Amino acid sequence: MSSPSWLGYKQSLSFWGTDGVRVDSLAEMGTDVATVGAWRRRAATVTVADGSQRRCVYHQLSAEQGDAQQRTALEREVAAAMLIARSFDGTVWERSFTSLIGYNTVAREPFVIYAAADAPALAGLNALAIREQNAVAAALVRLVRLLEAVGIAHRGIDPHTTTWDGATVTLGRPSAADRIGRRRRPSGLGPWASPEQRAGSGRVDARDDLWSVGRILYRLDTGQDGPADRAPHDLERRGQLSGPLSRLFEVRAEHRPGTAELLRALRVSDPVDEYRRPFDPLDEGRKAYDDLVAQRLGGRSGGHRAHRPGGTPPTGTPIPPRPADPPAADPPTQGTGLFKWMRRDG
C-alpha cells in the first residue's frame, strides 16, 4: 500500500466525533489514493470540533464495491474504536491506541477518520537492541491485557500498523476488533493472525492477540516472518523467546498463556491494577513520599505507580505522614454496552 500524499483538494465532510457531536469540516484531502478491495485510503487534514486541525488518515467504503456486510464490519469497527476512546482517552494509555477522530456510517460512502501515525511502524525496526525488544514485548502484552479488561480483542495487531517511537507502542486501527466470546469471523493474514482467527473457528479470545504479539517479537528478533501455522523451529535459540514468551507460539489459543499469567511470568506490572484505581488527588503526594524515603535509605523508589508524574522533594525536606492508599474500584465501564454488537452472544 503506497503512502498517501498530503497535498490535494478541499472537500466538505460531515461526521461525528467521539463525544457524539456532529462536526461539519472542510478537509484538505490527499490526492494519492490507496485502494484495497472496496476500501479507499487517503491522507487528510481535518478541522475538528474545537477548531483545531488534525493530520488524519481517511478510510472510505466505496458505494460501487461495498456491500451490507462491509458496512456492518465498519459499524463494528467504529463501536470498538469508540469503546477504546471512552475507556482510555485522558489516561496514561491514550497514546497507545490509534486515535479515532470521527466517523459517518450513514453516508452513501461511509467512512472513518483516524489520527495519522507519528512514529515508525515496527516492521521497519529490525535492528532493535534486546532492551528495546523487551520494552516492546512488555508494552504489547499490557495493551492486549487492557483491551481484554474492556471486553474486546483487537485481532489486527501486526508490525506494519503497530508503531513505536522509542517510548510508546501504538496499536493500529481496530478494523477487525470484536467482542471476546463472540463467534470468530475469518480475518487477517498469516503469520500475524492466529490460525483459529484466520479459519473463523471457535470464539474470540484475548489470546488471539497474543499469537500476533509473538509473531511481531519473532520478526523483531530475526528479521523473518516465520511460518504461519506452527512455532518457528529455532525458538530455543532465540534468547528471550525461549522463555515464557515461547508459549505465544502455541497453535491452539487454549494452550497459550492468559494475559495476566504472562505478565506475571515476565515480571511486568499488570495495567489492570492501575485501571481499577480511581483518580486520587493524593497520588502525586504518595509517590513523592515513596521517592523521598527511598532517597533517605539510599535506594530506589518503592515502586508506587502514579497516574501522573510527581516531583521529588529536596533531600532536606522533613518526611510527612504518608497518605493512605485509596480503596480499589472496579474498572470504569464507560462505553461498555452502548453498542448492540457487544450485547449479542452470536
Question: How would you summarize this macromolecular structure in one to three sentences?
Answer:
The chain is of the alpha+beta class. The protein contains 8 helices and 11 strands. Helix 2 packs antiparallel against helix 4.
Describe the structure in your own words:
The protein is built from eight helices and eleven strands. It has 346 residues and is of the alpha+beta class. The chain folds into three domains: 8-115, Phosphorylase Kinase, domain 1; 122-273, Orthogonal Bundle (Transferase(Phosphotransferase), domain 1); 279-331, no CATH class. The longest helix is centred in the N-terminal third of the chain and has 21 residues, at 68-88. Strands 1, 2, 3, 4, 5, 6 and 7 form a seven-stranded antiparallel beta sheet that branches.
Care to count the β-strands? 11
Q: Roughly how many Å is the radius of gyration?
A: 22 Å
CATH fold-level label of the largest domain: Transferase(Phosphotransferase), domain 1
Q: First CA to last CA: what distance?
A: 34 Å
| Shape, principal axes of CA atoms | globular
- Overall pLDDT confidence: 82
Task: Name its key features.
346 residues; alpha+beta; Phosphorylase Kinase, domain 1; Transferase(Phosphotransferase), domain 1; 3 domains; seven-stranded antiparallel β-sheet; two-stranded antiparallel sheet; 8 helices; 11 strands; 27% helix
Write the layout of secondary structure elements.
Blueprint: E1 8-16, E2 22-30, E3 34-36, E4 39-47, E5 53-61, H1 68-88, E6 100-104, E7 111-115, H2 130-149, E8 152-153, E9 163-164, E10 169-170, E11 178-179, H3 195-199, H4 206-222, H5 259-266, H6 271-275, H7 283-297, H8 340-343
Antiparallel strand pairs: 1-2, 2-4, 3-4, 4-5, 5-7, 6-7, 8-11, 9-10
